[in-house]
Amino acid sequence: MSLALTDGDEIIGRFHGKVGRNHSRLLVAKIEKLLKKCRVKPSDIDCLCISIGPGSFTGLRIGVTTVKGLAHALKKRIVAVPTLDVIAHNAKDFSGIICPVLDARKNKVYAALYRSSNGNIKKISKDLLISVKDLLEKTDTYDNVIFLGDGAALTGRAINEKLDWHPRPQPLARLGIEEYRKKAFISVEDLEPLYLYSRECDITGK
Length: 206
Prior knowledge:
Elements: E1 2-7, E2 10-16, H1 23-37, E3 47-51, H2 57-74, E4 77-81, H3 83-88, E5 96-105, E6 108-111, E7 114-117, E8 120-123, E9 128-131, H4 132-139, E10 145-148, H5 169-181
Parallel strand pairs: 3-4, 5-10
Antiparallel strand pairs: 1-2, 5-6, 5-7, 6-9, 7-8
Helix pairs in contact: 1-2
């Protein structure tokens, strides 16, 4: 679970830690505790930011439902940041191609490609739901690639085990601030998790 509270560009409070499968029980309590610690009232908040996915269906639903409830009750604006973007920024000091990889089960992974140089990261692909084989074909055209995420080991490539890949509050906050300044707001009604469905998961028949 990752939370951050910002004042302008400054992160004034954060939480990042393992809570097992207790997100639905602990998330609101952790938010309340963070606000109290920073002496900030809920009414003082200007905008809520969420890491929107792709990822665990249940985890995304818990986050989205919480943000929807807070935004509706407090009448606050919302911005959303793709989860793979947040993970990629954990490796911002790396020069080359950053490839976050999350295990999507059924021999598929969620992934995206980012070009990183001198601390600047540019997304060069869409968010992908792809087989490991096809992902390796995409990345093998580049010379210097780093894989990170819970699906990185599936690639069979060397990974930096010291680098914490989990979506952390600091990059999420920074990316959220960028979206806020661009006024890329999402209404409570339109906020939905970013799901990348395979044909096996498609219940619409499209």
